[in-house]
Amino acid sequence: MIKRSISILGLVLLTQLAPAQTPIDVKGAFAFAAQQYEGMLQSHPDTTKFPQSTNPDGSPRDMKSSWWCSGFFGGSLWYLFEQTGDPKWKDAAHKWTMAVAKEQHNTGTHDLGFMLYCPFGNGYRLTKNPQYRTIMLTGAQSLSTRFRPDYGVIKSWNSFKDKAGEKYDYPVIIDNMMNLEFLFWAARESGDKRLRDLSVTHANQTLKNHFRPDASSYHVICYGDGGKVLARRTHQGYADESAWARGQAWALYGYTTMYRETKDKTYLQQAQRIADFFLNHPNLPADKIPYWDFNAPGIPNEERDASAGAIASSALLELSTYGGPSAKKYYQSAVQMLESLSGPAYRAKVGENNHFILKHSVGHKPGKSEIDVPLVYADYYYLEALLRYDALRKKRS
Ligand code: GLY
After folding, report:
1. Do 318 and 260 form a contact (C-beta atoms < 8 A)?
2. Would you say the pTM of this structure is higher than 0.70?
3. According to the model, what pLDDT value does residue 10 have?
4. pLDDT digits (tens, 9 = 90+) for 291-305
């Protein structure tokens, strides 16, 4: 979720960061997003059908509230309200936020951070509606039931079968780092310190088990008795030993958030190492939007993943405020990603793209699903990154 405060250190650093360059037209980008999402609201009168993507036949692909992406549309509507101040977006955001409310009781998924904190968290930050707070606190307790203290990690999927057909009962995916911001919020808000402690434990276990020496991340770690690592696998990446692009972006965002929440330098260093892996990778294209997997076999004839670019851009903007020798590079790279996404190669034309903002993301290529399509979460993190960029520039001026 968007971070409001920028530290004094961050501000001082940022005054030295950006070279004179034409600023991104944030207002224009939001005006375009507003046009697209007005169309999206008109084409989606039923709040049980959540905008997700485009089907292979070109029709809109909608999902149910139990799908991990159900909170992103409401979250993006809150970002539109935040940027424009227009109450029509607040009404629409409320409607699509409340449409996810029943998931607060869902203990069968680890994705409650995405599903609840993106819509309700932004809604609560902007309106202080107490109903949102209550729903999130219930949801945080539901999520915490998936944490086993003897394993030290929150369980992601209920089970996972690898490509060889081996079945595992306690898989944890790198994406799970994205839940921790939600749990930190809930710990602060409710006084339940257990939620904070389990988040720290999860982040430490993940740091220990999920990363290779070059700071790239595995997708799936399969845990067994006592928290023993049984296998390191991929699900959405090209291969077990490859670097699935969105996974790297989740890791970068997750450890940047961990540093914000704890001020523990171990997490900052980890976030910086992940950023360096991402930005220095020889397969990262000049426009800084990665291929769907850094090791996809057909590069350069492979699909890009705009969602990974948007997530990474948002994370790098925050990371750039925490100093270090590469802070300037993080900022400039994040801006370059935003410039790319805001240009004609990735941004749709008005009324096209089933009303999504961005084109060219990949959901699950090995599963032959959502390849080179719009994805609702690419839009969400793009809008978030634009707001972060705007806030940083306003602080500087
Ligand atoms: N969290 C699932 C994905 O990134 O596709």
Report:
1. yes
2. yes
3. 52
4. 999 999 999 999 999
